[in-house]
Amino acid sequence: MDKANLTSLRKEIRKSARLSLKKHYWIFVVAALVAAILGTQYANTTQIFRLQRQIREDREAGKTTEMSDIRTAMGVDGSGDGSVYNDLVNGDWDNIAEAVGYRLQVLQGKETYVGDVQLGHSRGVLASIVNEFESGALLLSLLTVIDTITGSKRAAAILFALLGFAIVALFWLFVINVYRAACCRIFLEGRTYGKIPFSRFVFLYRVKKHTKASLTLAACTLMRYLWMLTVVMYPVKRYAYLMVPYLVAENPDLSAGEALRLSSRLMKGHKWEAFLLELTLVPWLLLSIATGGLAGILFHNPYREAVFAEYCARVRAEGIAAGTEGTERLCDRYLYEPAPEAALADAYQDVARDSEEENADLSPRRGFWGWLEKWVGVVPSVDEREKAYREQMDTGLKKEEYQDALEGKTYPTRLSPFREAQKRRKTEHLGYMRHYSLPSLIMLFFIFCMAGWLWEVTLHLVQTGDFVNRGVLHGPWLPIYGSGGALILTLLYRLRKKPVTEFIAIIIVCGIVEYGTSVILEIMHDGAKWWDYTGYYLNLNGRICAEGLLVFGIAGAAFIYVLAPLLDNLISQINMKILVPLCAALIVVFGADVIYSGEHPNTGEGVSSSAASNE
């Protein structure tokens, strides 16, 4: 192909990739971000934050950043790792403990800011886990335990090395490799269809091909490392094996040998073309570095993945047209082109038939309760009308899974050469599309208050070893959790059919509630703080942080789609003559605690801190 045609092809591929990215922006961003976190792709995105801090500190100190400093910041300084490894083999534990302790101190001091947002990881549960792993402190603790049991440092080192290798190998095989294929699958489906279900993240497990697929990708990685030893041949083989994860995403039943040979055949004559295509993405990589990795997360990484999904689809089509040996194994036709309406109608005829059935006519309530039901999903009680509504919603949810496929919006799993295991949904009977009665909503508020209190107390107990009554109130409840639970259950009622939108909205609502509560408490109590996230990942003025909001988002989604319906079913079984007085009693006791704590808040070590102590 001449130079003009190559340029035209690259432009066409990038244009198609941008259209695909525009259609599925958020799910593509999430898919690429998870890949960066796992290290399957784009690991440099997370390392850029360290490099930015190193350069800024050197500039403030009036010195030039040396190459050794850059290598350390990017996590490629081999001296430390090699030294610790040698000490481990030789049983020199004093040096190991000293090196681990020093590295842990360095990691705990890493804090990177973008404006008021802190990106470092000096404090917090997530930070503690990351630092323990990065420094080797956790592994050193395990090594000490093994030594105590065996009575031999050398035996402990061998057992420890074997155990560590097994854990890393299993994680690499069944998480990292499986996710790499799943990520390719998401981007391939995104170029063909308008919607991508989140179930595609685990599609290899659903078709029960995760073991074979992971072993195939492991063999590909091993071959790349072996070719890397030759230095000269590695760039050639890097592009020769470019198609492997995409081939596995289409046909996870391919053996390692089949995938490697087929990728090499398909990429014959295309390696230089792929190299030039990758060069066109370098400016976006530079922008990612210039913005501290943020542009990589928000654009470069998902865009690059979309570009190569488009490119590999075109190479595949060209190979099939040319009759390349092995392409007969590429049998997932509807991954690359929409299924015809006749095939969809035949495969989903039961869905088409059921969709024509008329739903029961449920007249809306009138007046105040009608408004509450429509906008926040609250009803006075679970009457016959509400039971009929729940049954109708349950039936609708069962149909919805295949309706998008019937309409050609999503990949038609019933037409796939690899049928997904159709397991009965354990939460199907829960029916999250329901209205909640007022007594049930009150009980859920207190249950979530107490669950939040138990979570905070347990977390503090694990971290410090001290039992502390957390929160500004004296009773076993944290109203911020109950308020958050009640708000997301009511204010976000109309978003409940859209899990992704609901999840994002949960994080926003919980962030506003937590930030606002922090400000109000500090104003009311002379600057005293009941929580301070300074030093946590992505914290904003120490009032909220990404770690906490992520926990709120996950817990909130679990609350809405699983826990709240389950608890509501249990609460509905309580006789109203008992339930109403119980709600009233809880409100009275809670109100008294709020009034008393307004004058005498719960304070002390591990509960709150004064403004002065935080300066």
What's the Cα radius of gyration? 28 Å
Give a count of the beta strands, DSSP E runs of length 2 or more.
6
Contiguous low-pLDDT stretches (5 residues minimum) are 46-53, 70-86, 110-127, 129-136, 423-428, 610-615
Shape: globular
Give the overall average pLDDT: 77
Strand content: under 5%
Give me the side-by-side strand order of the main sheet: 1-2-5-6
Summed up, the domain count is: 2
Separation of the first and last Cα atoms? 66 Å
Structural class: mainly alpha
* Fraction of residues in H or I helices: 55-70%
Number of helices: 26
Biggest sheet, in brief? 4 strands, antiparallel
Task: Give a structural overview.
- The chain has 615 residues and is mainly alpha-helical.
- Strand 3 (378-379), helix 21 and strand 4 form a beta-alpha-beta unit.
- The protein folds into 2 domains: 3-329, no CATH class; 436-614, no CATH class.
- Helix 6 (93-108) runs antiparallel to helix 7.
- The N and C termini lie far apart (66 Å).
- The model is unreliable at 46-53, 70-86, 110-127, 129-136, 423-428 and 610-615 (pLDDT under 50).
- It has helices at residues 3-23, 25-38, 44-60, 67-73, 78-90, 93-108, 125-135, 137-150, 153-192, 203-206, 210-228, 234-240, 244-250, 256-266, 271-279, 282-290, 294-321, 341-347, 349-355, 367-376, 384-406, 438-464, 479-490, 499-524, 546-572, 576-599; strands at residues 113-114, 117-118, 378-379, 436-437, 539-540, 544-545.
